[in-house]
Amino acid sequence: MNDSDLQALAREAFVYAFPLHEMTRMRAATSPRRLPGAGFAGDGADSTLRWANCLIAARQLLGAGGSRVVTPNNDTLYLNAWLDLDEGPLVIDVPDTEGRYYVLGLLDFYTNPFAHLGTRLTGNGARAFVVLGPGAGAAPPGFEAAGAVVRAPTRWVWIIGRTLLDGEHELQLVHALQDRFHLRRLDDWRAGRDSAPLRFDARCDAQAPLTVAGFVANVNRALRENPPPVDERARVARFAALGIGAGCPDAPTPAHEALLRPALEQGMAELQAGGLGDTVVQGWSMPKRLDGGFGHDHLRRAAVALKYIGALESAEAVYPMAYVDADGRALNGTQAYRLHFPRGQLPPVNGFWSLTMYDRRTFMPVPNDIGRYAIGDRTRGLVHGADGSLTIHIQPQAPHDAAARANWLPAPAGDFYLCLRGYLPQPPLLDGRYRLPGLQRCVPV
Predict the structure, then answer these.
(1) Domain termination residue (choose one: 201, 216, 238)
(2) Would residue 26 count as lying in a domain?
């Protein structure tokens, strides 16, 4: 293989393997170091040991600086769990949420959203689900109900749960619901007892900058524990020429380092610039439909892993993104904008919708004096026009007009982007018939 072929292979390998690297980082960042009753998994806060097979509940909506996951929502309280299925099946008990929207989104280690448990597919009643690892045989007895058996494609699975919160006044209620979600080993579930969490070594510094050495180490360990699908194994085997593979050392050779360094630099620039394959309509990047996984669209999979890892499949939620205004100009806090929804033209959803503001550099919510990171159909005090329309005002400074201030989404001084989330989208939002209005530059109000 000549140098040109190796360079092309290095770029391909980076795109393919980047989600594995990100999942390794997210596992280190979001698995608890310490648990009540169990203490530190290691010998202190600096250890790389973590706890798995336990549910962790976020008690507040995620705002500025409150998340380790990029582009987090500000609509729901999160439940988080990393499952290691190597020791056998795990059972998830969910409570009756009495009609309140929730979903447990399950991602395999390649970031494919392969299962969704909750309101849309399995209802709001109390029930139990068993999660089986790769190669597991017949489902155990006791899980004959539709949807009760979940077969995971990889040994490691990330659960990102979301439970609707309509405001601070509901915190106590939703906390009580969160406390009734349980995760146990199958034998403990049958015996009616709690399960101890599992200690594991994350072997990763989630805050470390991207380097060839860190990338190779994370990816090779991930491939050993989570082999690729059968139809992709021949493709992945070719990456061994670069030192990437389950059978390769975790430390790259100087030759492999020289090949992979430009591939990582160029690959990250390409992912930052695009890679999602979206259609842009009136400045909104409308995502391709995602059903259960990314298939062989590895570039899109990598771009999603960078920009909003943990996305649900489209039938659960859609995520139109705006990086530019209706005229294609980058969104920036030096300008003021208005987003005008004519009467009857709000996003068509069976659940709820919101518009969230993010800093373009950090992919995180924007700090602001009023603590408002999102605005949507559940925002109290919105002021509609006399004709029934709704106008959202986006600018750094608070509007002088009281009605505009009620509809204000604070922006940062620099570059930003917006995510419109539509939960349980209706067909027009899923198939593109519904068109979001474009963001229009305007004079600050």
Answers:
(1) 201
(2) no
CA distance 178 to 441: 42
Picking from 113, 112, 142, the residue whose alpha carbon sits closest to that of residue 129 is 142
Query: Side chain identity at 385, as an amino acid letter?
Result: G
User: Which H/E stretch holds residue 52?
Assistant: strand 49-52
| Shared domain check, 82 and 160 | yes
Give the total number of structural domains in the chain.
Answer: 3
- Look at residues 165, 184, 201 and tell me which one is the last residue of a structural domain: 201
Same domain membership, residue 185 and residue 86: yes
Task: Answer yes or no: is 332 within a domain.
Answer: yes
User: Is the CB of residue 129 less than 8 Å from the CB of residue 183?
Assistant: no
* Contact call for residues 276 and 301 (beta carbons, < 8 A): no
Structural domain range at position 157: 32-201
Instruction: Look at the chain and count its residues.
Output: 445
Distances (CA, A) of 338 to 60, 394, 410: 29, 6, 12
Q: pLDDT tens track of the chain, all 445 residues?
A: 788 999 999 999 999 999 999 999 999 999 999 999 999 999 988 899 999 999 999 999 877 666 667 788 889 999 999 999 998 999 999 999 999 999 999 999 999 999 999 999 999 999 999 999 999 999 999 999 999 999 999 999 999 999 999 888 999 999 999 999 999 999 999 999 999 999 999 999 999 999 999 999 999 999 999 999 999 999 999 999 999 999 999 999 999 999 999 999 999 999 988 878 788 999 999 988 999 999 999 999 999 999 889 999 999 999 999 999 999 999 999 999 999 999 999 999 999 999 999 999 888 898 999 999 999 999 999 999 999 999 999 999 999 999 999 999 999 999 999 999 999 999 999 999 999 999 999 999 9
Hey, what are 379's tokens? 């925002």
416: phi then psi, degrees, rounded to nearest 5: -145, 170
25 in a structural domain: no
Do the domain assignments include residue 194? Answer: yes
* Gap between the Cα atoms of 364 and 1, Å rounded: 42
- Note whether 149 and 197 are same-domain residues: yes
Which ranges in 146-185 belong to alpha helices (H)? 171-178
49 residue type, one letter: L
Q: What is the CATH number of the domain that holds 422?
A: 2.60.120.600
Question: d(Cα 309, Cα 291) in Å, to the nearest integer?
Answer: 15
